[in-house]
Amino acid sequence: MRITKNDVPEKINIPGAIARQVTEFGDATGYGKIAGEYFSLAAGVDIAPLLKGLEDDLCQSPHWGYLIEGEVTVTYLDGSKDLVLGGDLFYWPPGHTVAVSKDAEIILFSPQQEHCAVVDHLRKQLVG
Fold first, then answer.
1. Tens of pLDDT along 30-61?
2. How far apart are CA 16 and CA 8, in angstroms?
3. What CATH number should be reported for the domain whose range is 2-127?
4. Which member of 3, 24, 53, 118 has the greatest number of CB atoms within 10 A?
5. Distance CA 41, CA 20 (A)
6. What stretches of 1-128 adopt beta strand conformation (E)?
């Protein structure tokens, strides 16, 4: 799921302040502590090969975030894809991979235990 800023409904719009809010933006039920993450990824990065060995060879952590700039394609287990563009808010459920088509700066909020396990797996793959 992704949504552009202008598609997030305005809840408050007064001189000097606009507040936008979208509800039902993913579900954090059952997850513990959350990690705040900042990723800088160059065009051409595709993490799919590094996910080999994880369940379904995909990242199994959900993420909520904001793509500051760039262009990222997220592919899910069922083969569906989301094109996330700079300025988009997003929710990526478990069972996805990421490929970068334009240099990207990404802010993620992820369940700490689940995503730390994925990041540790990626690190092992890089030195492996």
1. 888 898 899 999 999 999 999 999 999 999 99
2. 18
3. 2.60.120.10
4. 118
5. 28
6. 2-4, 10-14, 17-20, 34-41, 63-76, 81-85, 88-92, 96-111
